[in-house]
Design goal:
Layout (H helix, E strand, L loop, with lengths): L1 H28 L4 E17 L2 E16 L19 H29 L2 E4 L5 E4 L4 H4 L7 E5 L2 E2 L3 H9 L6 E7 L2 E7 L2 E3 L4 E3 L2 E3 L1 E4 L3 H28 L9 H12 L3 H19 L7 H14 L5 H31 L3
Antiparallel strand pairs: 1-2, 3-12, 4-11, 5-6, 5-7, 7-8, 9-10
Helix pairs in contact: 1-2, 1-6, 1-7, 2-5, 2-7, 2-8, 5-7, 6-9
Length: 345
């Protein structure tokens, strides 16, 4: 539980902080007055004013925020340097810079992983990689590095043989013959049905073959992986809206649980997960839903076309509609989390 909480605070804080830093740095670059840039939320622990901006560290380490003067036109104390007084294109740039940072961060993370740890590809060897705790294989005594020789007397030659045999099992105990440090051993594993995956699992992962990359090769691989993930995430969202795929949403509880599980696999795995979440956050934020950056961008686009901003009432009702949609999605996702975590659904 402690690992889950610490890992979640670190990951969520990192993603939100980078997102807000994107808004902050572009607001400064376009001549807007930023009254405060804060790391965390809640009461201030430390603060220092440099120029016209107060930089603070607050007691709740979950991301941060920046206070750009003039976000509310009725309370603009910055004159022509207020957000509301800047040309539409400058406001657009400030709005999209938050999600943009969520696309840049994964490139940096992937680059650092590839340049230091290397790039990994799945091995076809029938050798156990990670053995997930509290799962059938771990409970039977199997460990990372064990080489599987046979299951229920059927010879295992490659990893796909393990996947096939486990998937086709009926949940009966399986006799597994394996080698560990040159010594032949046996174990009995009882597969369990995973409702989310809709198949039998024993809680093991295949091994990875790691290859070191040079700086340029790591940069190219990082950009390529980021683009690959973005493409498939967008494709998944399109399939949800077209009805081709089910909307299996995870809320904060589900993401925290996944973060804790990944954290146990090591810091590199946690950072890789953070990169995926960052891309997800960036894409979601760009959806044209009021109250999200994408919705804000659309209202600015309408202002550019009309030559004047939307009326106060229109903005109010639009924002309320967006918040209602977001709250409904959050409740639905939280319900999924509760069913999945506490009832095994």
């Amino acid at each position: 539980m402690v690992i889950t909480i610490l890992a979640s605070v670190f990951v969520f804080g990192l993603l939100v902080l980078f997102h807000e830093f994107g808004h902050f740095i572009m607001a400064k670059a376009t001549g807007m007055r930023v009254d405060e840039f804060a790391i965390g939320f809640g009461p201030k622990l430390l603060s220092k004013t440099i120029g016209e901006t107060e930089y603070s560290i607050r007691c709740v380490p979950l991301g941060g925020f920046n206070d750009i003067a003039g976000m509310d036109p009725s309370d603009n104390t910055a004159g022509e340097r207020g957000y509301c007084e800047k040309p539409v294109w400058k406001r657009m740039v400030v709005i999209v810079s938050g999600p943009l940072m969520n696309f840049i961060l994964p490139v940096v993370i992937f680059f650092l992983i590839f340049a230091t740890v290397g790039i990994s590809t799945l091995s076809t060897r029938p050798e156990l990689g990670e053995v997930l705790p509290d799962q059938p294989a771990a409970m039977a005594g199997l460990r990372k590095g064990d080489r599987i020789d046979a299951i229920n007397g059927e010879e295992v030659k490659e990893w796909n043989d393990i996947v096939r045999i486990v998937r086709n099992s009926d949940g009966s105990p399986m006799k597994i013959a394996y080698h560990r440090d040159g010594e032949a051993r046996q174990a009995t594993v009882i597969p369990k049905h995973d409702k989310q995956e809709n198949r039998m699992l024993i809680g093991v992962m295949d091994t990875l073959d790691t290859r070191q990359l040079g700086v340029m090769e790591a940069a190219e691989a990082a950009i390529g992986k980021t683009g690959y993930v973005i493409y498939h995430m967008v494709q998944g969202i399109v399939q949800i809206f077209t009805g081709e795929a089910a909307a299996d949403l995870a809320g904060p509880l589900g993401v925290m649980q996944m973060t804790g599980t990944v954290a146990k696999l090591g810091f590199a795995a946690l950072m890789n997960f953070a990169a995926l979440l960052s891309l997800n956050l960036g894409i979601i934020n760009l959806l044209p839903v009021p109250a999200l950056d994408g919705g804000h961008f659309v209202t600015l686009l309408l202002e550019a076309v009309r030559g004047k901003p939307l009326g106060e009432k229109a903005m109010h009702y639009t924002q309320m509609a967006g918040i209602t949609v977001l709250v409904a999605l959050m409740l639905f996702a939280t319900k999924n989390d509760i069913v999945r975590i506490f009832f095994g659904g």
